[in-house]
Amino acid sequence: MTKVITYGTYDLLHYGHIKLLERAKELGDYLIVGVTADDFDRTRGKINVQQSLMERVEAVRRTGLADEIIVEEYEGQKIDDIKKYGVDIFTVGSDWTGVFDYLKEYCEVVYLDRTQGVSSSEIRASKNEIRLGIIGDSQVIAKFISESEHVNGINIIGIAGAMKAKALSEDEKKSSVKDFNFSKGIMIALLCGFMSGCFNIGLAFGTDINFGDLTPVAYKTLPATFLVTLGGFFTNAIYCFYQNHRNHTWSDYTNGKVFLNNFLLCILAGALWYSQFFGLSIGKGYLVASPALMTLSFCILMALNVVFSNIWGIILKEWKGCQPRTIAVLIVGIVVLIISCFLPQII
Q1: Topology classification of domain 3-120
Q2: Which one, of 338, 284, 211, 120, lies nearest residue 330 by Cα?
Q3: E strand or H helix at 5, and its extent?
Q4: Residue 274: band (very low, low, confident or very high) from pLDDT cuts 50, 70, 90
Q5: Given the DSSP bridges, would you call strands 3-8 and 130-135 parallel, antiparallel or unpaired?
Q6: Angle CA(27)–CA(29)–CA(33) in degrees, nearest 5?
Q7: For residue 193, what pLDDT is reported?
Q8: DSSP letters of 140-208?
């Protein structure tokens, strides 16, 4: 008896899947179909799956083509399954040609032609298009990028940090992430997002805190900004005192040099933080005649934040060791952001 095995996600099972299973069935006497687990799909970068594992398994069962259905749960399971079930032929669609040639050591490998014009990725994309930006460079990200187009139905619109990461040595990469803590980082990110929303709500509710027509348009939002940031000051002060108590650093307040440095840095940070909203408020006063720029004023502020932060990154040698091509791309990006600030008015 010739045993054949094939694998797939079988999300939104369609005519193309069925034709592939029929051709796989014709290769032998007993067909084993491996359906990928939800967690395994996410691990290998397939994040746009619409149906659960049980729904996909049931869809395959209803075709009546599978003599046995198994679940693929981890990398390298194909070799284990071939040995476990005594498989003679491994087969998948021709879009994976060459990828599974390493299995020829264990059994015959056959790549079947796919049914043209039908794919789950296209169906997923038509139902729920995802446009994604990626930051960083790693094996997992590289795998996701390589599979995204024909597996996920996801449009990648930008990859940030990849050129810099590739230019760094392994020691430099390890040094840059030595304090990496995913759980702590995601908690801080969620907290920052929540607090940012509260910040915006405070600004919205405080728009009337001024002297009405007696207050120039350029200064009307500043009282609310001051009060909201004052709340931020007290929040940060409480956390700072907590850290002083925890780390026994109260003596820093009596150390003249340390206190002066921290005090000056705090003033600088506060002035820069407040000045962006001060500048936004004043800037809006000059943009009243341009609805396009008025609408995009906050986007312009964010673009300028990115511009100045990257310029400071260059000055402070954050990009030291990167190739000239990477620096050139960074500079071009900064120029594009600067132009984008004025493009709505030009158009």
Answers
A1: Rossmann fold (3.40.50)
A2: 338
A3: strand 3-8
A4: confident
A5: unpaired
A6: 75
A7: 80
A8: HHHHHHHHIIIII-EEEEEEESHHHHHHS-HHHHHHHTTT--HHHHHHHHHHHHHHHHHHHHHHHHTTT
What pairing do the DSSP bridges indicate for beta strands 130-135 and 108-112?
unpaired
Domain ranges of the chain: 3-120, 130-173, 183-346
| Strand 30-36 relative to strand 3-8, pairing | parallel
Which secondary-structure segment (H or E) carries 110? strand 108-112
**Do 202 and 231 form a contact (C-beta atoms < 8 A)?**
yes
Share of the chain above pLDDT 90, in %: 23
Q: Is the CB of residue 87 less than 8 Å from the CB of residue 3?
A: yes
Structure tokens at 160: 């940030």
Q: What is the pLDDT of residues 140-199, one digit of tens each?
A: 555 555 555 555 555 555 555 556 666 666 665 555 555 667 778 788 888 888 887 887
Output the pLDDT for position 166.
62
- Going by C-alpha positions, the residue among 194, 197, 233, 226 that lies closest to residue 209 is 226
Kindly state the DSSP code that residue 100 receives in the 8-state scheme: T
Alpha-carbon distance 248 to 143, whole Å?
46
Q: Which residues fall within 8 angstroms of residue 72, CB to CB, at 6 or more apart? A: 7, 34, 35, 36, 37, 40, 78, 81
What whole-number distance in Å separates Cα of residue 247 and Cα of residue 278? Answer: 35
| CA angle, 157 then 140 then 161, to 5° | 50
- Taking the C-alpha atoms of residue 186 and residue 191, their distance in angstroms, rounded to an integer, is 9
Decide if 103 contacts 79 (C-beta within 8 A).
Answer: yes
DSSP-assigned letter for residue 36: E
- What are the respective helix, strand and coil percentages of the chain, to the nearest 5? 65, 10, 25
